[in-house]
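so im writing up the methods section and need the EDD domain protein, DegV family record in one place, dumping it here so i stop losing it
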Amino acid sequence: MPSRVAVVTDSTASLPARLVERFNIITVPMQLKIGTELIDEAHVPTDRLLQALEAQIPITTQPPAPDAFFWAYQDAWAKGAETIVSVHVTPTLSPATDAAKAAAAKSRVPVFIVDSHSSGMTLGFAALAAARIVQTGGNVQHARSVAERRGRDARVLIYVDTLHYLRQAGRVSAAAKLFGDALSVKPLLTVVNGEVEPFGKVVGRERALSKLVDKAVALAYGRDVDLAVEHFAAEKEGRELLLLLQKRIPHARDIVLTQVSAAIGANVGPGALAVTVSPF
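--- predicted struct ---
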């Protein structure tokens, strides 16, 4: 029997397909404008995005296509949903939440919008937590409150080879813009109130990743947490980071390895790695 509560998110959640399918999460794709072509990011292969970045073709991220959220809500209603929890990228990073709110106003069933306060697996774990509640028979109020708490309490730690792509996309705070462009200096970033903020800078990639792991261990200490390692076009490095975290944080419930969505990848650039620590 279909659940009476549906969970919807947007593709910046970067959830692996196996989890989307297992927990019946409806995912609405963001859009990328590559040059003059506007495409659902689900249809943008990694190789094409890398080629466009290397060729310095202008790339911008866009909210989902007009009415995409509306039809997602309609589809959930048609399958028996009586209420919907819709969990999204924070409005500071994307207008997708505004599009979801506009669609909710036209929906046949009540839609409760949740701001994840970030994107990536901070959003992913929030949507996943709501879906877990739904699958175990929880009501919409419980699913909504858990999603809100998971988004609010999670922390993402980001390593990028260069700030070039984030600067180009206008995604870094004034503080982060002060970082120099020396190739040996690797910025470490986090997201605070929807703004990409620095939490450190280290000379050398290995030292930077070591500091990122130490910070993740400190955040997870004494807490029940889920962890995600996110990467863009750096699966090998992501797996290595995953192994380090498994050794240092053995009490983590779930550890997910995933490539970020194309919309995030266009902003962080190839080689980017991130760790999301999500208390539950």
